[in-house]
Amino acid sequence: MYAQKANAPTRKPVTVPMLRAMKAEGRRIVMLTCYDASFAAQLEMAGIDIALVGDSLGMVIQGHKSTLPVTLDHMVYHTSIVARGLNATLLVADLPFMADRDVAHALEAGAQLVGEGGAAMVKIEGAAPHILEVITALVERAIPVCAHLGLTPQSVHKFGGFRIQGREQSAADRLVDEARAVEAAGADLLVLEGIPTALGERITRAVSIPTIGIGAGPHCDGQVLVIHDMLGVTPGKRPKFSKDFLAGRDSVGAAITAYAEDVRHGVFPAPEHCFD
Question: Its Enzyme Commission number (predicted)?
Fold first, then answer.
């Protein structure tokens, strides 16, 4: 692992201001989830822009049916070990379920993820009034925030399952308003998950912060996948919006590099990975 990290191509560290510049210049942003130091080194070698320690670890690492059982201690632990495998790649960590229930708890969680975990940014789901307050409070204390709208996994019970969001006109309009609201609250990045392609494009044009799609179409400013999905090792049926990049390749590193190249050249996601 350490030899891989030492041999990684020299590049400037990805920063929050750099992400805005990439959007302005039309350079697509590449993000992947990551949960340990060995895979982090692979992301670093492949030149991935952002590593996301997602609470998706509850499903792909811990074997739960949702992200809800993941605790703050779990997130801090996994964030800290991913940080050890990174150099230039920007590290983002999820605020787990109910860590954002009020400003005080969110500030404490954010401080742990950044101070102990080594994250450069925290991700938070939704745009309810108290979430907007949390975003502002974190940003005011120099903790950058990635917002997350659309199919937000922590709302799985409210949605009645992992269902595509924003197909009705009223729901689409609401998501556009929410995207503008999280930007106004201070978010520097926005993940859009499980929404129609046309809505992903509409939101991307409506905000000045970069958008990162996962099942949100090819017009977002960047893309993210769960690394287990893009390596084809997730048990059961792979999500429609994902692709097995390991198929036909001889190493994990080659698969990650192929994913990055396809995102940057606009090859992925293709129409078969998108929703109407």
Answer: 2.1.2.11
